Amino acid sequence: MDEMLQQNPPLIGIDIGGTGIKGGIVDPKSGILLSETIRVPTPQPATPEAVTAAVAVVVAELSTSPQAPEARSPVGVTFPGIIQHGVVHSAANVDKSWLHTDIDSLLTAQLSRPVKVINDADAAGLAEARYGAGKGVTGSVLVITLGTGIGSAFIFDGKLVPNAELGHLEIDGFDAETQSSAVARERNGLSWAEYSVLLQRYFSHVEFLFSPELFIVGGGISMRADEYLPRLKLRTPIVPAVLRNEAGIVGATIDIGLKLNFAVLRAS
Ligand code: BGC
Question: Which domains does the chain have, with CATH numbers?
Fold first, then answer.
């Protein structure tokens, strides 16, 4: 049987962030990383040419791993902006020249293998829903990632409703992520207590709008959740992401893995 049609083969996942581009080889059955994580800094300016070249470096490095999948196997990629039908429709924290770029086609050509791109927070949400803190939770789950910006994934009964952009809610006259992202906390030199006040305002507003069953907090500072989650007063349970900073890499491979397994079922 063609190795491409092997059910549940390992897959390469790449997470493009505002500050770093990370990749790993993921076991789709468990969501566990089979390789070490390879990271390169996001080039500045983060233009399509520079970023795709950096993604190619990470994929080439991963391809030397003993766990690497077949050379032409598909790659799942995340991007920190709206992705609809493989095209970029927002670029808040990357170079504006990404707008209207067909990123699926660009990366497919650059890597000479099929590539499917989804929003970074959506990928984290898929990973948490399948393998992490949202596993088995019915109803609405909101995964909020606090990083360079604020990302969000809206999961309902384990399924993703893509491209929820709740980091850009206007709160007190500001685009929320400009005040309440992890990078905004550092930029403004806020203590955890001061930052928690902003998070309280943010999560109360989102809770009022959506009444989810669960909030999951992802992004780099999910590792420091003890500093701020206990200070928040919400009626919704709020927990850190289980997959921590790897959720994007793992989630990048979920959509593409489903398509592969569908192809196996059709071929058998
Ligand atoms: C973007 C989102 C992204 C989030 C986290 C926001 O600025 O609009 O699409 O998910 O940052 O990277």
Answer: 2-120 (3.30.420.40), 133-241 (3.30.420.40)
The structure tokens listed for 154 are 């809206």
Coil, helix or strand at residue 137: coil
Question: According to the model, what pLDDT value does residue 2 have?
Answer: 45
Written as one letter, the residue type at 21 is I
Distance, in Å, from the CA atom of 72 to the CA atom of 75, rounded to the nearest integer, reads 9
Q: How far apart are CA 63 and CA 24, in angstroms?
A: 10
CA of 264 to the centre of ligand 1 (A): 33
CB burial of 168-204 (b: ≥16 within 10 Å; e: otherwise) equals ebebeeeebbbbbbbbbbeeeebeeeebbebbbebbb
Kindly give the distance from the C-alpha atom of residue 167 to the centroid of ligand 1, in angstroms, as a whole number: 7
Residue 262 pLDDT grade (very low, low, confident, very high; cuts 50, 70, 90): low
The pLDDT value recorded for residue 259 is: 66
Taking CA atoms only, the protein residue closest to ligand 1 atom 1 is 81
Question: How far is ligand 1, taken at its centre, from the CA of residue 6, in Å?
Answer: 34
Question: From atom 10 of ligand 1, which residue's Cα is the shortest distance away?
Answer: 151
Return all residues near 208 (Cβ < 8 A) that are at least 6 apart.
Answer: none
Q: Which residue has the higher pLDDT, 78 or 92?
A: 78
